[in-house]
Write a structure and sequence with these properties.
Chain lengths: ~325, ~500
Amino acid sequence: MIRSTHLPLMVTLATFVLAFALCGWQYPSMLSTRVVANLLTDNAFLGIVAVGMTFVILSGGIDLSVGSVIAFTGVFLAVILRDTSIHPLAAFVLVLLITTMFGAAMGAVIHFLEMPPFIVTLAGMFLARGAAYVLSTDSVPITHEFYDTLQDIYWKAPGGGRFRLIGGIMLLVFICGALVAHRTRFGQNVYAVGGGGPTARLMGVPLARTTVGIYAISGGLAGLAGIIFSLYTSAGYSLATVGVELDAIAAVVIGGTLLSGGYGFVAGTFFGILIMGLIQTYIVFDGTLSSWWTKIVIGALLFSFILLQKGLTWATITRKRTATGSAQQS
Amino acid sequence: MTTPQAPLLHASGISKFFPGAVALDEVELKLYPGEVHALLGENGAGKSTLIKCLTGAYRRDGGTITLDGEDIDAKSTAESQELGIGTVYQEVNLLPNLTVAENLFMGRQPTRLGLVNRRQMNTQAREALLGYGLDLDPGEPLNSFSVAVQQVVAIARAVALSGKVLILDEPTASLDRDEVDLLFGVIRQLKDSGLSIVFITHFLDQVFEISDRATVLRNGRVVGERLLADVTQHDVVTLMLGRQLEATVQDRKAGKPGALLLEINDLAKRGMIEPFSMNLHRGEVVGLAGLLGSGRTETANLLFGAVQADHGKMLIDGREARIANPRDAVAQGFAMCPEDRKTHGIVGDLSVRDNIILALQARQGWMRPIPRAKVHEIAEHYVKALDIRLASLDMPIRLLSGGNQQKALLARWLATEPDVLILDEPTRGIDVGAHAEIIALIERLRENGMALLVASSELEELVAYSTRVVVLRDRHQVRELTGDEITADNIVHAIAAEPEKGAA
Ligand SMILES: Nc1ncnc2c1ncn2[C@@H]1O[C@H](COP(=O)(O)OP(=O)(O)OP(=O)(O)O)[C@@H](O)[C@H]1O
Ligand SMILES: [Mg+2]
């Protein structure tokens, strides 16, 4: 059943379909599996980190640290694989633990010290970036046969598209994220916190556990995105992925999630990512446009989505005004 | 009632201190199984605070609580829910962004294989609400329903959580008589099954109708516990106030209304209120009567420009006035005290003083600040005049008790010294003492030549102060009562007894 709360999601979906159709009409070769496969591969790390960001924004918070955490993860992996003989899988587990704990710690500070998420995660952003610099200021290449093995896993679709492992992992993360957000008690608590902290507390929602959990998820997924990014680039560089947190926020908002929290869907974020990726692909296909157009189009999109949300909120309020009373008449 | 055995819930020596105020001082509360226990007291007496201390929403500063003879110490509302104490707090209780079913089942969703089973949740929610006379789609977001429906959902949630004790803090404030009856039916059932129920309200009729016993608080202390079968309303009121309440209904001096101030011609808004016409003179109180949803609030909003009329016109002092929004209305000498103070009224984090001065300052324009001393004087004056109980004028208004917030809001609009004052449910959540004071105040304002329009669901109250009553039904203006016609009976008649046009 379609409800008013699903409307932003529908609009996002429609935008994507429309954009894809337009691209295909202008450059028929964009309708190939190759383009689709690249879309997934190129945006894998961004998608994963945007899932975490969706949780954070649904709860009414923000996480500015994720870009730095991705860079830190990359450098950490590169350094550890260069200097020690630890197996990459063990290094993955280790770095996921670190980033999850890092997120949880930020969540704890936000909840227990009652600090605004903006400030806490801004501090986290500097911390993680600083830690990455401390490990290495140069780009450190990763050369390990395990990496080659992982990079060689792909499924070749008819039409020549190569669907790689990292794109698959992103899809998996989205599916798990959607399940957790919409079908678990934890997910319901996230929405509750976004709807209003004090009320949620009176309703018996465990605020501390939920807040810490949300930022732990965001940190952990940023770690996973870091691993994916290192697979994608085969290197770790402390200056990489600057500003990725903002791209993730943009994807979440374009996906129809309300920045003030409480409303939105993980699936929306997926299409937000695809829309942003599509714009980039279009500009590559065109060849004459400067890549800065990506930013401009995304900016315009963001702006129109925010306007749309305002409009919808306003529409529900008026609808509610007229509905008041009619509910009681009968 | 025979003297019952041991209390089910026994709180003793409960104390709670706030900066600058002792909210509770060694309070004792005994709840026996199968009883409805009313908790009474003036605005700010400490009723809500006591409830919050009992259920872990506040940490108490002293005292012990036993449930079934065992010491309990809930540190959060989640813990008290697990102990079987379900509560409807006075403030907003539910989350507007979630669906009705999600609100109802928050924290105890039916799961299968660890995943929330939405279909089952929606079916169960629908069934549960049918028991309260609500047939609605529980998959819709809560904020698409009226305040009354939301309140019923909050009650349904608390009832479902209450294995042993159910606590209701002013649950009936926004309910219709029918809904109150349904609620009381549910309460009686729960009572028969051995639950203890705490019931807080300022409607004494309801207290005597449903409760067996009452504990009365005054200034954070227990001043008495009574079996209600043994006492009269008068006794209870005297105990609450610590003094006798002067006779409430004075003789309405049929003072001649002054000059014509406001002429309303067929003002309407499609889907909200049908054409509405009325004249309002200085020195007149026009009451707006009607059931919930009959268009009382809508009419008030229309006059104040909070919603735009799409038909008809309004004349002020004979000149046509264009009121497109509340700003225009305020500039024309209107003031309105809204029904829903939580969303349209108080600015929670601002001080009481700033909240009181807000409307006056807004009318003056922000570029011309009112001098500090003047602000203080005005705020002081109204705090005294309306008997607002507070620790200091500087405290954030959200820390005031519910009824005192209501009074502060009234003060805000009185401070603008308007020509036309629109009051929507001015006595909701206000205690009996203050109730009488507000009625007296309305009388006084009228004598000073103000024109008042008061929407209220309490007929006795309307009868007490109105010089005319306009009755609304289904968003139509159906009757106007004047002079001796104004009796509660006549109003009820006009609301209900008249046959519908075109109906059999
Ligand atoms: N957080 C707080 N900080 C400071 N003072 C507070 C706080 N909460 C309540 N108070 C004060 O404690 C007193 C008791 O308030 P409470 O809300 O319990 O009253 P009440 O009996 O429920 O009144 P009402 O009938 O108006 O709801 C009030 O004077 C109020 O100002
Ligand atoms: Mg109260």
